[in-house]
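ingest -> fold -> write
write: protein_1
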Amino acid sequence: MWKRGKGSGPGVRQNFSLVSRYIQHFNEVSGNKSALIRKRSKTPGVLITQYEVSLPEGKSTPDFQSKPEPVAIKEGQLAVFKAVVIGVPKPEVSWRRAKGNISDKDKYLTKYEKSTGEYILEVHKVSAADTDTYKCCAVNEFGKAVCTATLSVTDVSTNPSDFRKLLRKSKAEHADGETEDTFWDAMLNADIRDYERICSEFGVTDLYTVLKKVEEKKRERMQNKCKQDVAIPSDENATEKHNLNGVARTKNVSIKSLLQENPGLTQLEVEKLNLLETALNREDTEEIKLLLVEFKLSNVDFVVKMQEITAQEREDALFECLLTHPLPSITWMGKGSTLEDGEKYSITVSDHKLIHRLLIKDCMLLDKGIYSAVAGITSCNAWLVVEADGDPTPAGNKRPRKTAVARGAQTDLEKVAKEQQIKNQEEMEKILAAVKAKYDEGQVKGGSRSTDGGRKAEINAITGLGKNAGAGEDKVDAAKATVLSEQAGSKGSKGKAKKKNPKRDGKGSKSNVPGCVTKTGGTVDAPKNEKSDGVDFDKVTDPNEQASDYEESDSEDNEDPTGEANEDTTGEVKNPRCAKQRKQQANADNGEKELIDSKEMGDDTGAVKRKKRKRQGPLIEDVVIDPGVQFICGLSDVSAIINEMAELTCKLSSEDCDGAWFRDGKKISPDENFIITKDGAIHKLMIIRCVEEHSGKYRFEADGRKTEAMINVKDPPRFPPEDLSAFTEPVIVKVGHNAIFKLHFVGYEPIKIQWYREGDELYDDSNTKIERFASHSRLLLSRCQRKETGEIKIKLKNEHGFTEALSQLIVLDKPTSPLGPAEVMENSPRCIEFRWRPPKDDGGSPVINYTIERQQVGRNTWKKRGEIPGVPSFRDTEVEHGRRYCYRVRAVTAEGTSEVMETDDMQAGTLAFPGPPAPPKVVSAFDDCINLCWNIPINTGGSRILGYIMEKRKKGSNLWTVVNAVDGLIKEKRYTVKDVVAGLEYEFRVTAINLSGPGEFSNPSEFVFARDPKEPPGKVTGLKVTETSYTHMVLIWTKPEDRPGIQDEAKGYFVEIRQADCIEWSRCISVPIITTSFSVKGLKSMDMYWVRVIATNDGGESEPEELANYVLAMPSPVRPKFTNHRMKSFVVVRAGNSVRITVHFEASPRPAIMWLKDNVPVAKRATISNSDGSSQLLIPSSERTDSGIYSVLVKNFVGQETFSTEVRVTDDPKPPGLVELEENVPDTVTVMWEPSPDEKRDDRLHYTVSKLDSTKRTWTTVADRLFNNKITVCNIMHGREYNFRVYAKNDIGISAHSESPTWGMEKKKQKFVVNVPTMKDCDLRCAPTFLVPLKLHTAPKGYECYMSCAVKGDPNPRITWYRNHISLNTNTNYFISNTCGVCSMLILRVGPKDVGEYTITAENDRGRAESSTVLSVRE
């Protein structure tokens, strides 16, 4: 995909690398590690931007392993984009569109599929507005990757005025309509295969709509051209000739282009189109073409899609899919790139073009990914999972290559394909029937009734829907019976054609003279030498005018403008007089007098109009005429190999028809190279020994029909069968010897020769030598080693193809040592038996036997124990009890003896005691005996169990006694103890004995009475519930009575419960309890439960005792009441703070809680939290509007309780306004002030007034808690000055004061003058100076470094730190401080980058001072 430009090449890449290194060096020097680097992706269409110059090890930028594919979909459906992204660390993936947003979560859904690793964007219910370019972006910390995909909605408006919107506006605006006209001109003059490229260049995305518009424009252009051809001013003959040429070109273009653009048509469809050519005009053919384009492209879909395949490494993988309509080829994609047929991939298609296959050869781990098949506008994909070979094949045993297919139920594709072909045939007949119906309707409206009957019969024959159409073969017979003739000329026949009579009367018969057809009751002219093959000019003449008419016909037939004789496509000379004689005979027999004007004109729609003369005889009946022989199966292209045989085969509809074979236009005659055979209706052409001159186009003609195919003679490389058979035989050599492979070949030179071993190509080196000659090649492998065993392949390739041959190289060597460790199967005092695994590599020869040596631990000598056959196990019976032994094992083959495998020490008769058995279980008990059983111990000590010993103990005693001392060892795992006393209680234990001795005793059994079985107890009484809660209940009952012989005493009790909606009882305990009370826990709140109690003893269980009513899981009813008596009824909160009201209560069952504000439910901004026994209301940020009375209502079915709290949300009050003073009564002053702005919002706001007397120094409060705006102050004395202050107060605090003007007049006092001597201020300002300068510092790498100095100056100087003359004050890597003139700087982790000269400057308006030091870092 990437094309190399003019400036590309090694030189340019070297310059680029120099620039890249320069940028990298500059970034390292400057400390900048980030950069923006554009990279190429392996997936076409992906743009990668790298942020870092060099990536850390193991990290990578994002990339698309599989990018989203363009989607073309119908309106209202679901569009899906899928992408697979890789990168370390894992990238974040986002989607967006170019001309809009995808914020609508209901319409645009993004998700990640973990099983496939796909990022998916789903667009639901697409519309025309969704047509856009969608972008997928993957980002991590090291870069980003971007790719795009387009979405096209097909069902959009086809109004011509809307097509301007499909074209993208160019940067340089042209005149109105210029871009659109250029686009349509390019589309109309281009081949159909270039449509997608042109639309891409002009930015058009709706290809389906453009195809419809192109067809309409082509039809309009052809109609306009036909009108212009008719209007040419010329004589009558010239007009007729021109029309013939125009119509002939039209029909040639329509049918031939239709066949070329739809190569997937079946043979029957091709035959039907050929028949339609004779019956339909240009408009009808264009309609069929449009229908077939839609039929083939837009309707194609997958019947059977690709399935996921899991293949082992080095296996082949086969993907298969089945289409709804035949296509000659589809596009296969692998991990975002297009796949082509070659050495790695094999792409095949079935004969009926429905089944397509992709074979991936020799799968490797790199081939893992998503593979897709694209057919038209639809596609399907599947995963190929390649698993590593967990069990590698030993050298010399080459595993045969297998082909992995999809898992699950396999579908018979051939059977499904046959069913699909039948469906396609039915759809094609419906399309052609629709065309026929449209044509019939157009003919009736146009008034062309003279040819209506004949054309109807032709179309009925094609579609199988005529009056004579029957079931099965009747449709084909009708099609054959209604066609007069077919177009017989080839491309090089210069427009010669046969003529047809649309008025078919009487019965027709085929003449022996080529080109002549005879009718009874009517005549049909033989073909004339005309330049058109698309228009019919038939003459039916009166008998009186036959002579003059046919004299003209003879002269016209015998004279050729080119000077050539009239010939048909088979090269035979036609006799024009045959038609004349048969016309005279037909007219004479019937006496028919009908004249038809020979002048025909094509109207605007292509329909033929005829002018009739007055009829002078009876009407002629419409008849059906045999069209002749047709091809059932045509020729197919053949690729032949030089000097081998090639064969062409076709089949006709008749066995009585002969034909002729042509090569490149020349007739073929049978000779020593060509053999022509005929077997019934099957005709064959065989070429015995093909040579290059036999390549070309071959044609078979019969009865005016033809079929063509190409033979391409190639000379690919190939091997003689005898040499190939000898080469495939394995070559077996011993290690260190030489191996030679030689193979002869033939083929077109030059031939590229390649040798491979295990898939890796071989080259000449010290151990490998490859000889290449014109006719053979030789491979010499010197000093072969065992690891070189494997597949040897030779590959030959030339311009005609390639071939391969496989052989095997087997290098024989001595085997490797047997595999350990040895597994001990038995180590008893009498023998030691162990086994091992065979050698991993037997050296190419089977293991004959093993040699065994033994050494007793503590000695230095090895003793040979002999040889055993090739079974990897050994049993040594000559051992001494307690001794330890070590063994050596060697494998022996025909090639030698392997290295030794030495075992670990093995002891004969190890004292391994058995483990304890399971505790004995009581089977039954009686007055005189007790039956017990037990299980074998899990650990047998490595030897068999010889028997068991059982002991018993009375309850309350510490003495264990053996019960089987008289009988000896117990051989079975059960025993009956008879030495018991009736009425006493016993427990038992058992131990196992093996060859080493007795093992551990088991745990004791349960206590059991030596007495006869008991009767089950009776039912419990007095069952009742004493306490309930949401999670548990407490039950008590009375034990049942003891009635000897009827019911014995209860030993324990079981409690069972059942939910009301369940039918099964469940036990609360697995072991019976002995108490008569029980607490049932784990209940679900407010659920209903049924409860029962069952008594049990050794005799069994009693009848259950059940409560009469169900129990509800809830506490006893309690009326709600508040338990916190310190709850406040009034709360003041500053505005902006949170309001939190918490209440605690008791209630059962759990009550419903409701919070109200001023008897209205609280707003949503208030958060309410309820729990068992408490409830809380929280307003995170309060406002003044939150003030009010908050009430909480706690209610259950027992009762309810309410608590109210007044909450006042306020803030510090604002001060009162202007304060005025007036004297209404002597010796009094009335203080008046304007109210505070908060007075209206706070009804608890009040005022406080303070007074200051000129004779005193303190303010005294005159009045407090004033709710009006004035007060009269008494006891005002003359000669004194008074000042008043007014404050506003609320529940939060007090405001600032508002002060009144001074009231009264103070007595004037004489001034006291004090002369104070003037003092001159001392100027302490000075320039900065360093009291303590910086010192030299040497710090270890990775440690911290602390620099400090002392400076003085007035005013305080400004301090600046520098490193290498670069300011550090704004650098966050350095901690700088200045405290009372002590300046310090701290470097946390010193590194090489911190080495340099450090300078501190102090500067004020009096001067500047500087101090420097050097920092060194030692490793």
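write: protein_2
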Amino acid sequence: MWKKSKVTDQTATGQGGPSEAEQEEEKKAGIKKRSKVPGVMITQFIEVLPEGKSTPDFLRKPIALTIQEGKLAIFKANVCGDPKPEVTWGRAKGDMSDTETFQKRYDEATGEYTLEIHRVSGEEADTYKCYAINEYGKAICTAALNVIEVGFKKKKAMEQLEDIGRGRVNQNFVRPCVRPSFVLGSVDPAEFRKLLRKRKGVDKEEAVKEPGEIDERFWEIIMSADRKDYERICAEFGVKDFRVMLKKLSEKKKERQEEQAQYIETINNLKHIDIKGVGIASFEFDLELKDLSSRIFLYKDGVMIPYSDEEEMKHSLKTVGKKLIFSVRDLKAEDAGLYQVDVEEVNLFSTDFKIPTVDFIVKIQEVKAKEREDAMFECVLSQPCPRIKWMGKNATLEEGEKYTITVSEDKLIHRLLIKDCSQLDKGIYSAAAGIKTCSAWLIVEADSDPASHGKKKTRKTTQAGGTGLDLGKLAQEQQEKLAKERQEQIDAANKARAEEERLAREALLAPPLPDTGDGDSGEGGDSGEGKDTGDGKNKSESGSNKSKDGGKSVGEMKDSEKEGDDKKNKKSTDDSDKGKGSSNNGIDPNANGEGDGDSKGRKGRTGPLIPDTVIDPNGQSGTGETKEYTDASGKRSECTRQGPLLKDTVIDPNAQSGTGETEQYTDVSGKRSERTRQGPLLKDTVIDPGVQFVSGLSNVHALIGQPAELMCKLSNDNCEGTWYRDSKKLTADDGHIMSRDGANHKLVINRCQEEDSGKYRFEADGRKTEAMLNVKDPPRFDPDDLSAFSQPVIVKVGNSTTFKLPFVGREPMKIQWYRKGEELLDDNTTKIEKSFTQSRLLLSKCQRKDTGEIKIKLKNEHGTMEAISRLIVLDKPTAPQGPVEVLESTASCIHIKWRAPKDDGGCPVINYNLERQQVGRNTWKKLGDIPGVPEYKDNDVEHGRKYCYRIRVVTEEGVSEMMETDDLTAGTLAFPSSPAPPKVASAFNNCINLTWSTPTDTGESRILGYNLEKRKKGSNLWSPVNPTDEPIQEKKRAVTDVVAGNEYEFRVYAINVSGLSEPSSPSEFIFAKDPKNPPGKVEDLKVADTSYTAISLSWNKPTEEVGVQDEAKGYFIEVRQAECIDWTRCNVTPIILTTFTVKSLKAMAMYWIRVIAINDGGEGVAQDLDNYILAMPPPVRPCFTDNKMKSFMVVRAGNSVRILLNFEASPWPEVTWLKDDVPLLKRVNISNSESSSQLLITSSERSDSGIYTIVVKNLVGQESFSVEVRVTDDPKPPGPVELEENVPGTVTVIWEPSPDEKRDDHLHYSVSKRDSTKGSWSTVADRLFNNKFTACNIMPGREYHFRVYAKNDMGMSAPSESPTWGSERRKDTFVVNMPAYKTCDLRTAPAFLVPLRQHTAPKGYECYMSCAIKGNPKPRVTWYRNNISLNTNTNYLITNICGVCSLLILRVTPKDWGEYNIQIESALGRAESSTKLTVRE
């Protein structure tokens, strides 16, 4: 029976908890807690733990192991707890007293506890527990040990045989293959032949299984399977009786539903396990439980496995509403097996997960395709696989109109065809076969022809290039390899079978081993416990049943007993029953070796006996033949055989046989015995396997009315066979052609009909092969009707038309009509008629826009068919397209050119009709029709006059609307603009090839030619290259008038009818020398430094090889993100240094970087970095980078406090601010960046004073810095000042303290003095912390004044004046006349400091425009695009910060193309600046 291993302590995550008894016991013992580690249960002994103490817990618990026997099993665990817990190990069943097998260790360095189980066997398979106990609690976790047994175990087999004898037979017990050597020591060859004959009958009976004896795994799988899979599952398990199986399945399902009703309300939407993504498999179902606390268990092959709700785990459970999704990640081959989900003890769902052992011989390769083309991926597998999974952009791809999935006949080559590629289809595509995957890019290139954009065109299929592999040949070689391996396996099996037969024959012919037992010891076999309850002469019908039970015999036949004596046979049977050892025919298949035994020295056997096989050499039965032999004790024994005798077979070393040959041998007792053999030796028997199928029939799909062929090949050329269809024999009269070509047999059906479908069978020599013939009737068209339908239909606008196409095919048929890819439905202008044989499309009131492809699509259950036609609706053409190009404008002519109409109405242009009007006049002059060339030269013009033209298109369907030109002036001098600087195409010692482009402004006339000039480097003289009267007609020139080794620059003039343009800018200097070879790869490319936004590179110059690669003149650096395929060049012009820093990167993003060397010969081969680079700096311990950081600062109360500290750390650190070692208040603002942190208090108070500490911490370390902040204010002045004279010549100044003295410990005083002889104050004392000061050197006759100031860290208070000390005459007052000042006017008019500049932005990128302005008062700013205000447009980000005005476009589109201007205005004036934005595709 398919058993699940029981885990006694179900503590794995999601796998339930302890039993009710254990729960009750734990309630008595203490408080049960759950650990943070899944699968650990903690019991706390006391309610409140002392401070600093804790219960034991597991930091790492032991994990379940599945190991092969004979290996070393190791369980490891780490525990924690205070006090340190004691760790012990135990097991659910059995003891661990064997110290050689179970060894426990502890590593003090790592704190790891280890249990080692040496040379594991099946007896050690159990659930092991790890206990961690201290005085406050205990922690328990479990781990299962599963042992994989290898080879045959004799002891186990004998135990199972004893169980059979005692009637304790497990219905799923499979009898091991017991070798003959187990019983050879107890019987002679003749007796062993009887055992073989009896054993053969037993094996044959065991081979026939009843439905109730089917493997339990079969029922687990089929009860959760769909009905369509029943046949496949039965074939896998060898179940043939469907009727009995279905009856029993119905009973089991009913029982299962009754069990499930205890715990669940509903279960539905069962989806079996399948590989969903790369390395992930999952199965799901909807479940509604009656009790939400019910436990859910997950088993694999009967072993319970833990799971988690975290998707990163190996096994996980995700719950979405009622849906349960089980996932298995990181798939490996050992993950295959039977997965079962149980609620409590009831099974809910079983699914069998099979992982094919297949790999990719050829993986899919990158494919490049153009738009509207088809792209194909293909791969080759190592094993045949009927279907693999194709994925695109993480979505599974299915067969349909967009994708076609094909498989070769040998099921080795798999292909994915992507039809009608577009830009949306590009991306990564992958193929998954089992757990093996491969992926490649599909690159879709844009259509190079803009005129055909969006139009259908002829498609072609693009495959991966560059592999150069013949997939068909590879698949054929792999198929041959697999066939060879299968044949080798068959040969090895046949060889092993032949070797076993040889060993069996040798065992039959080997002499019997003498018995060394003494009759009571029972040696030579397993001892049985039998006692003599009879007369010791148990008689049997067919021979002697002997047992090894204590050396006592089960039965014995006397010489006088003859065959047919029913009474004596009956008595023998009765006596045998008393002895518990004999049964019918002398052999009890359930006997366990217990028998009576009054006869001593006779051999006994344990276990079931095998019936004898005896053959009479004359083919006649010899009944009652008695044979005598002497055993080890010297006593003679007799044995009477029933049935024909078998010749003794003796192997002669000389390969000769004789009749009546006598062989002598001596037994262990020293007595000699002889045996005479009768007849010749038997020859080895070779069994002819008969006729085999070399290749069987294969399923065939054929179209109705088409031929079909079935063929197979036999191993014999002379064997006839019979063909059947649906079990009915086929004959040549049935319209079938049956032929045979040697070993090949073929059945041909010339014209298949629906009744020919069915199962075909070919039988030959008792063997058969079957295959299905499926006759399909898909939609089909008659070739003539299809050819007529494919012809374009032409109709005039407003008229009606009809499309009709007959068809044949099996009903029901789905008919769809399409116009330009869109399905048509019945409406006012469209009507679709359908019948069984044809369909018609009626289009009324056709318009020009209806022109396009008309397609009919037919679909039934057998296939799909399409037919395409074209509808052309004729109408008047549209007006010609502008703008009009002036090719020439002189005093005598105006030559103009325009573009053909966008739509010619379905007819070619015949003529263009022109009219002309002279500006200022009201009349139009008809110039007539000109041929269908969109160009006209008007020679009837007057110099200086302006003219306007009207142009119409003329076709067979009518005349178009007119196009009117702008005013064109005849004879105005309009010089062309300067051409672009010439470009050097190539340079040689004697020639330099130049190219240039047409000037942007041709001066409204045709360019007649170009003049080219050159100048040698270092010279100021330009010399002409071509004669001035012979302009260069082409836009290129080969300059041969050069000297090798000199350096030249060139410029070019454009010439039109008005004259020469200004010269172009000079070209780059170029040496006149032969071209160089491109340089090689740069060497030693490495990363010098990294940061979050930049990566620094360094490399060495490439080596020079003469004639192969020359010196590098510069380098380009290219970068791309890991998820992108396009490289971006970092520098526009080559750099000459061998170092470069790539900037503006995204933090923590992955980048690929390469360096390309370049010289005059072109670009070299790119050198890539070996691995991708992360945009992040190397790990750096936090440190502060400011050399002079202030550790003390004083802030005036009410002002802001700002502390900015710069640091460096990698990775980004965690920044923490503290005030006096306490977290900050909410009113304090902290702002952090990558390399700095700022503390800001917008309005400080005196309470904000304190020590502020910043702690910068990351994975590498941490650093801190403290700043003392003192928030204070200007002190208040001291109180009244008094003067005293205690000592002549001195004055003591005494004052009252300042009110701020008590709350400012840094407050002190300063005293200043001024006498009557001096006009200035001088400080006589400072930093006084008391309220008294004595001034010396007081001169009599002078007046003294004293001032006392209060000072602190912020500043100084107002003075407190003292009374006058002494007396002095007064002087006249000095008066100063101050001049009057005029107020300065600071107002200025608006103006631009930096105007806007021209911008060219790629499509999809951002564009940033900015300018600088001034003006007082501040001017008002308005942005415009094409004279439309943008200030209220949310698509643009407009800012004005400190006079810098900016406009930001996040994603530039062609709609943003145009002229942008900015206006600033105030009361003093107005200013404007404009620019032009060009969007580059």
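write: annotation protein_2
The two ends are 71 Å apart (CA to CA).
Confidence is low (pLDDT under 50) at residues 1-28, 164-209, 514-671.
pipeline exit 0
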